[in-house]
Amino acid sequence: MTVYNFSAGPGVLPATVLDQIQTEMKSFNGSQMSILEISHRSKQYEEMELEAEKDFRDLMNIDDSYAVLFLHGGGTLQFTNIALNLTDKYHHVAYVDSGHWAQKAMEAAQKIDGLQVDRIGSSDNNLPKISAPDDDPLDYLHITTNNTIEGTTYHQIPNSTQPLVADMSSNIMAQPYDVNQFDLIYAGAQKNIGPAGMAVVIVKRDRLTSHPELSEIMDYWLEDQKHSALNTPPVFCIYAAGLVFKWLKKFGGVPAIYQQNLEQAKLLYDYVDNSKLFNNSVAKDERSLTNLVFGTGNKQLDQQFIADAADKGLVNLAGHRLVGGMRASLYNAMPTAGVKALINQMKQFEMNHG
Ligand code: PMP
């Protein structure tokens, strides 16, 4: 049975990347040593890291005025690191409250002594507007481009007079964004980048200053000086991410995968919009391409659908425990065949239960 993994994270990875990892596992690059064993001070590591960074820069159009960091600690540690590294000037930041993860990011900043943290809007209804008053300078205005649990996305980023920081954990490289609109972008790796255990940070170098009061691995300036290898870096994650970047470049880069993501999401949303059983209540222009939420409005029926789908190899379709219902995460590596199989299953279920 073919299994399609709709998990919100760790998410599906390209099959060819997994094959390559398997082939190379015992001997990385002809070294007779596993990638799990090689030294992060070796030439082999350095070349691998530089290539991964170069491919990522190509994919996201990132120039040298930005540092690219591969760091430990997932998205969550960056919630804190951002607030510690970028708030020297005004000690004042604002967070657009677009959902659960935006709130978690804001709560991390609120723990920092002497930092004024404003909350902008609320995720109760539609997505809040990305804007903060111009007359009160902020160190940054924080946004979450894709809300993994709520299934909403900011498809357009308005020009902002305040410096923007974006959590792109769940839609980085799924659709084009202009890096130059942001002072900092960060993402946990385990959705569109690679395995869990790493975050990628893209940050304007002119925002970085030394922070000797912090633990060294939390100091972005120092990590940039040390090419993310201040201590032993997440070597395997960087290696696997590098393979995903190569896969995506071969696919045609972000514009090409964006077209596929649009097509896949359209297939599913069109079906849901015409269904008498399933529904999605997100405003059409705010719907996520990566996390598509839907439900029947009946808890028991939702459970039944999730169990039946799993029996057919369509796994991890339960919505987040905070919201219930279903969620299909269509990250970059999800093949269109998986989306079609899901829609067929929904049709079947609707025939039996509609
Ligand atoms: N931000 C967003 C938008 C997320 O979806 C998640 C995890 N699902 C996180 C942050 C937290 O990431 P991590 O688990 O890597 O700390």
Question: What can you tell me about this protein's structure?
Answer:
The relative contact order is 0.17. The chain is globular. The model has no long low-confidence stretch (mean pLDDT 97). With 354 residues, it is α/β, with parallel strands linked by helices. The strands form four sheets. It has a seven-stranded mixed sheet. The protein has helices at 15-24, 43-60, 74-85, 100-110, 220-225, 235-251, 253-274, 299-311, 336-353; strands at 4-5, 66-71, 92-96, 116-120, 140-144, 146-147, 152-153, 164-167, 184-188, 199-204, 291-294, 314-315, 326-329. The protein has two domains: 4-8 and 252-353, Alpha-Beta Complex (Aspartate Aminotransferase, domain 1); 17-251, Aspartate Aminotransferase, domain 2 (3-Layer(aba) Sandwich). α3 (74-85) crosses α4. It contains nine helices and 13 strands. The protein binds 4'-deoxy-4'-aminopyridoxal-5'-phosphate. Residues 9, 74-76, 101, 144, 148, 167, 169-170, 188 line the site of 4'-deoxy-4'-aminopyridoxal-5'-phosphate.
